[in-house]
Amino acid sequence: MKTSNLKKSTLLVVDDKPENLDVLIAHLDKQAFTLAVALNGEKAIELTQKLLPERILLDVLMPGINGFETCRRLKTDQISKDK
């Protein structure tokens, strides 16, 4: 089976620092992922509902709701609890 026929997994990357995102995206873009990016926890929750990513890479130190609170909220939602 050709890999081009396989669906890419969606990975949501959440970080408030653009320089961190630049490094992550440069590396992950070469992998077999469709990437989505959120700059804060609120946007991560919103995008998770819309995109249903298979995995979430989440920074813990962010302004607003931090990564721990974002994770807690995602885990209480039926749609995102297993991400």
Chain-wise SSE layout:
Layout: E1 9-14, H1 18-28, E2 33-38, H2 41-51, E3 55-58, H3 67-75
Parallel strand pairs: 1-2, 1-3
Describe it.
The protein is α/β, with parallel strands linked by helices and 83 residues long. The chain has a single domain, classed as 3-Layer(aba) Sandwich (Rossmann fold), CATH 3.40.50.2300. Helix content is 37%, strand content 19%. The chain has three helices and three strands. It has helices at residues 18-28, 41-51, 67-75, and strands spanning 9-14, 33-38, 55-58. The protein has a three-stranded parallel β-sheet, sandwiched between helices. Strand 1 (9-14), helix 1 and strand 2 form a beta-alpha-beta unit. Helix 2 packs parallel to helix 3. The radius of gyration is 13 Å and the shape is flat. The relative contact order is 0.22. The mean pLDDT is 90.
What labels describe this entry?
single chain; 83 residues; alpha/beta; Rossmann fold; three-stranded parallel sheet; 19% strand; flat; CheY-like_superfamily; phosphoprotein; Bact_response_regulator; Sig_transdc_resp-reg_receiver
**What is the CATH C level class, in words?**
Alpha Beta
CATH homologous superfamily heading: Response regulator
**For the residues shown, what is the average pLDDT?**
90
Number of strands: 3
Question: What is the percent of helical residues?
Answer: 25-40%
Q: Which series of helices and strands comes N to C?
A: EHEHEH
In the predicted model, the low-confidence regions spanning at least 5 consecutive residues are none
Gross morphology is flat
Q: What structural class results from the helix and strand content? A: alpha/beta
CATH architecture: 3-Layer(aba) Sandwich
CATH fold descriptor: Rossmann fold
Pfam families: Response_reg
Domain Response regulatory: 10-83
Protein name: Response regulatory domain-containing protein
GO biological process, one term: phosphorelay signal transduction system
